[in-house]
Amino acid sequence: MSERSIRIACAQLGPIHLADDRSAVVERMIALLREAKRSDGDLVVFPELALTTFFPRYFMKDQNEVDGFFETEMPNDATAPLFAEAKRLGLGFHLGYAELAPDGHFNTAILVDRGGRIIGKYRKIHLPGHSDHRPEAPFQHLEKRYFDVGNLGFPVWRAFGGIVGMCICNDRRWPETFRVMGLQGVEMVMLGYNTPEHNIYHDEPAHRRMFHHLLSLQAGAYQNGTWVVAAAKAGSEDGHVLIGGSAIVAPTGEIAARAQSAEDELVVYECGLDACSDFKRNVFNFDKHRRPEHYGRIVEQTGVIEPD
Amino acid sequence: MSERSIRIACAQLGPIHLADDRSAVVERMIALLREAKRSDGDLVVFPELALTTFFPRYFMKDQNEVDGFFETEMPNDATAPLFAEAKRLGLGFHLGYAELAPDGHFNTAILVDRGGRIIGKYRKIHLPGHSDHRPEAPFQHLEKRYFDVGNLGFPVWRAFGGIVGMCICNDRRWPETFRVMGLQGVEMVMLGYNTPEHNIYHDEPAHRRMFHHLLSLQAGAYQNGTWVVAAAKAGSEDGHVLIGGSAIVAPTGEIAARAQSAEDELVVYECGLDACSDFKRNVFNFDKHRRPEHYGRIVEQTGVIEPD
């Protein structure tokens, strides 16, 4: 019996302040890479927009100022040491960053193999927030202003001995995200997130933000028979608190391992990929049980159409 | 400000043995109706296949024997007293039963208004289990043998002051179920279930059966901003144990109320329908955030297509 597994190192990052430059962040990431190597990890998962503070909380009029948070190439001067060290250690990694490309501004994640080659790219599809300046709010959530909607779909890749996919932050709340990858046989979904503790849209206690985060991961994992690895940027960035709760969720939907802090922290877990197959073969045997002839509304309409 | 609400009475049923006839079951249901009335309930939710034992666990060669578990009309002699008492009390109810209709055998649920009129019908779409006799298994799960796939889609109805929908048992594990109703603005999904404590397909501890049940309800509720009301048939039917865990889940995804026994038990909760709108207007504002152009696989393919 072949025991396929990926030894995942989920690399939560503590706060990154406006004043922190990329090199300082990359140094912290390199420290986490080395810790992952000592823990015999295969693949290190870094958060969404891992190189800077969570800048969509700030309204900026000047597009040059906005673009200053974006990378025009990858690797670049700031991240070359990260790529080099990962290659030296023989580790793969997943990295989220703001990508300025010829076809737009994207909230992007890449997958890098043990040889330092970028083998996969995902651009965030479910952009949360708003596009208008809301000076009355305690902070902004301007992803819809600063980013274009991802244009690469939800691909999966054969890598690290399994079938892996990526999504980013708010994508995890949408069951469509996991299902589209589940329909491609995904065995591990990696994602990063920056989730403010405070909901600026409606009153909500902080504990529910953590509950909704975990609920979304757990449902996506169970309903598709896949591992889910979620890495937070956590803690107080210049006074703006992001939830932690980085977690590795098993195909059972159960939390296998979870970060305990709101700081830089590595969570390592050996994810056996054959554990996916009990679910993929039985309760979620899509071929046997799904009934797409009754799912038409999911693609035929975007918003709600109430009955008469 | 109008405060719309439905005072739900989720009516869990304890075991129904092979030897129990429908009249005995209806007597138990009438007792629950009366208790619901004393608790000032509006709408009583009974389980899936509420009139008999969970017969898909038995292999039957003789179709006449199978058909003996089905109802050819509703109401009928056995259920007329239930309809009459609900009407007398001014209560609506939801009832699951096996329906033998001109177009097939269905695992059906109906919604009955306070005047005793059937105002909605749903036929189960996600039939679990198998169609072949498996004598080596400790019991059967022959829903795929005894039932046809539901042919009514996932409709919703304006009733009881809100927009309500129904699904049945295994349907709850499929995010497509809730999403298709969510896209019609559903504010309350009612369902019944018979979930064996023992998984005959792969080894699984009993606690995970309850966890998966609740996880599915909670994700469906949160991700669509809807109440979910789930009524179990629970306990040991002739030695075959069904999980309990009847629950009323809020649009926050949190469990608002839950049965404590594996017997006949009523759980009453005042479900404020305006609580749905925080979610429907913000994080799950479908019109603003959904991206159906990336969801094609959900309807274009049934089973998994792995990458090359």
Element layout with pairings:
The structure is a homodimer of 308-residue chains.
Chain A: E1 5-12, H1 22-38, E2 43-45, H2 63-67, H3 80-89, E3 92-101, E4 104-112, E5 118-123, H4 143-146, E6 156-159, E7 162-168, H5 175-182, E8 188-193, H6 206-224, E9 227-232, E10 235-237, E11 240-242, E12 247-249, E13 255-258, E14 265-272, H7 275-281, H8 286-289, H9 297-300
Parallel strand pairs in A: 1-2, 2-3, 7-8, 8-9
Antiparallel strand pairs in A: 1-14, 3-4, 4-5, 6-7, 9-12, 10-11, 12-13
Describe the 3D structure.
- 2 copies of one chain form a homodimer.
- Chain A is globular and about 55 Å long.
- Chain A is built from 9 helices and 14 strands.
- The first copy, chain A, has helices spanning 22-38, 63-67, 80-89, 143-146, 175-182, 206-224, 275-281, 286-289, 297-300; strands at residues 5-12, 43-45, 92-101, 104-112, 118-123, 156-159, 162-168, 188-193, 227-232, 235-237, 240-242, 247-249, 255-258, 265-272.
- Chain A starts with a strand and ends in an 8-residue tail after the last helix.
- The first copy, chain A, has one domain (5-300): Nitrilase/N-carbamoyl-D-aminoacid amidohydrolase (4-Layer Sandwich).
- In chain A, the strands form 3 sheets. In chain A, strands 5-4-3-2-1-14 form a 6-stranded mixed β-sheet.
- Chain A has 308 residues and is an alpha/beta fold.
- Helix content of chain A is 25%, strand content 26%.
